[in-house]
Amino acid sequence: SADAFFTIKEIDIGMTADVGTLQRLPKLVGDGITRELAYTGRKMEAEEAKSIGLVNRVFETREALYAGVQEIAATIAAKSPLSIRGTKEMITYARDHSVADSLNYIATWNAAMLMSKDLTEAMTANMQKRAPVFKD
Fold first, then answer.
1. Are the beta carbons of 75 and 14 closer than 8 angstroms?
2. For the residues of 52-64, what is the DSSP string, one character each?
3. Which residues make beta-bridge pairs with 5?
4. pLDDT at residue 112, as a whole number
5. Where in the chain is the domain with CATH 3.90.226.10?
């Protein structure tokens, strides 16, 4: 929500951030902003977090936030669980590997998924012009 903030507070208590912040954040927002936040401990407000890609949206109120994330969750839940799992796996894999390696991995993954019930349901639903219904 608009009143949220992000900070790397460990620097203010004489520590180095040790739960993965310094390992993960540079890959999300870049080295420069990570160093600034880690060295200073300053608060990054919600709009700045959005502007650098740390968050996707800023909702005006907590109620709007809860409603917004429920809508996103419902949209995701209506998709094929197998496709969501594969997409999550590929995005995570691609973050840490080359494009060539990632393309090879997705080709292998998709070859294994061509016979899935989710794919059959999605194709059938598309031909019947209806929303697919996936089993959990």
1. no
2. TTSSS---SSHHH
3. 45
4. 84
5. 5-75
CB 58 within 8 A of CB 47: yes
Enumerate the CATH 1.10.12.10 domain ranges in the chain, comma separated. 79-127
The CATH code of the domain at 5-75 is: 3.90.226.10
Is the per-residue pLDDT at 113 higher than 90? no
Query: What value does the CA radius of gyration of the chain take, rounded to a whole number of Å?
Result: 20
- 38 DSSP 8-state letter: H
Instruction: Provide the 10 A C-beta neighbour count for residue 67.
Output: 12
Task: Say what percent of the chain tops pLDDT 70.
Answer: 100
Residue 127 identity: M
Distance CA 119, CA 70 (A): 25
Q: Which CATH class is domain 79-127?
A: mainly alpha
Distance between CA atoms of residues 39 and 44, nearest Å: 13
